[in-house]
Every structure is written in structure tokens, then in C-alpha cells.
Amino acid sequence: MDGVGSFGAGRAGSTIDPIAFAKQPQTILRVLSWIFSLVVFASIVNEGYVNMGSERLHCVFNKNADACNYGVFVGLVGLLACSFFFLVDYKFSSISSVKDRKKAIMLEIGFSGFWAFLYFVSFCFLANQWSRTTADELPLNQGADAARAAIAFSFFSIITWAGLTVRAVQKYLLGTDMTLFTTEHMDGGAPTQPYPSNSPVGTTETTETYQSPPFTENNAAPTYQVFSVKTLCTEMCVTVYYLNVSGLQSDRHSNKKENMFWTACFCA
């Protein structure tokens, strides 16, 4: 894992190095917690019950069945929880949702802290009941080693589960690196160009271009040349008069020209 991302893990889909994962403090604490829970559970189940001249089994902890049941419960659930969270730790970097990562971290904090407290209760409860157990209740010292192992590894489990809680809190405080989701600089500086310029050294190249945007409408109204009837008649009068004066037309059309001239003058 690259160590950059959200809650102490890399980006989603990043490759997982098994060796680096095994060397992490959280992984080591998880494996130790699994072993300690297994010892507490197996010690009470295998040698935590003895019979004294009858078929009925009695708990080695002052014949208190609640003490043995509590130790078995804490050890078994702790064993299963370690297996579950070990899988979550291994697959944590493949979780793409930041909200899901946050939920997983919060679940680990709550469970690890609560189970450290339960192991503290287990240590105190088993140690208290063992101190009240007399030698007459355990002929030939049966189950003494199992009882001591359950008490000792209950104490060790307090340390490992508390360490897991601290590690989970540290991951939660790391939060999410928001620079993975933003492209602007946080200090307000101008963003750099994403592509390098191919211009030679020492030359200044302007990047701003000014051009009209496409598909723009020309809001200027079109202009039209308007001719009035009076103006048109006046121009006709002048034109006919010019033709009469210059003599460009033949005499055959003189009457016609004269009529056109007076018609134009009348219209004007």
C-alpha cells in the first residue's frame, strides 16, 4: 500500500503486499489477540471442568459455572472477531467508498475497546474465583494449569485489544486526504499547466486567444435604403431631361420623350 488515501490505506484497487501487510503493527496485534483468545477458550473447554467422585462436572474456578461460561464466551467471540477483522484489514484498501471505510473503522474502535473491557472483567473475575478455590476442591491439582493459563492470557488479551483500539483510533484521526479529490492548490497559487510548452527557452508565449464565440447572433439591425415616390419621380424627370438635352435618342421618339418628361415632372 502506498500509505496515501483515506484512513491510513491507499487508493481503492491498489496492490497489497503480503509481506508489508504482515509486518504492520496492527496485523501483529491481531494475530496475538487471536492466539490469546484461542488459549483462553481452549484451556477452559479442555481442562476447565473436573469431576470429584461423580459424573457431574464442576468448574475449576471455585465450582462457579458462570466463571467458566464467561471465559469460554469471551475467548470464542474474541477468536471469531479476530478472524473477521483480519479479513477486513486485508481487504480494507479495496473498499472504494470513504463512508464504508469510516464505518469499518468505527466498528473496529467500538468492538476492540469493548472487548478489551470484557477481557479486563474476565481477568478480574477468574482471578477472584481462582483465589477462592481450595486444594480440596481440586484433587491431584486437576485443571490448575488450565486455570492459570486462562487468567494469564486474559490479562495479555487486555493489552492486545487495547493496542488494537489505539491503532484504530489513529487510523480514524487520519481521516481522508482530500487532495486526492481536488485539483486546485490549497495555498491559492495559480495552477500549473498540465502539458509542458514546446516553445524554446527565453521566448514568451501567450496562451490567451481572442476570437468570437461560435453561433453568436448579430444583434445589429439590417439597414435598408428607402426610396419615396417623390424622389423616384424627380430622378425620372432629371433623366428624361438629360436625354432630351444631349440628343441621345432619335427624333422618332421625341414625342414619347416629351411625354415621359412631363409625366415625370408632374409626379415630382
UniProtKB/TrEMBL annotation:
In this chain the MARVEL domain maps to 21-173
User: What InterPro entries would the database entry show?
Assistant: Marvel, Synaptogyrin
Give a single Pfam family match: MARVEL
Disordered: annotated segments: 188-216
GO cellular component annotations, sorted alphabetically? Answer: neuromuscular junction; synaptic vesicle membrane
Q: Which residues cross the membrane?
A: 31-50, 70-88, 109-130, 150-169
* Tagged with keyword Mitochondrion: no
Q: Where in the cell is it found?
A: Membrane
Spell out the PROSITE patterns in the cross-references.
MARVEL
Annotated membrane topology is:
Multi-pass membrane protein
Its protein name is Synaptogyrin
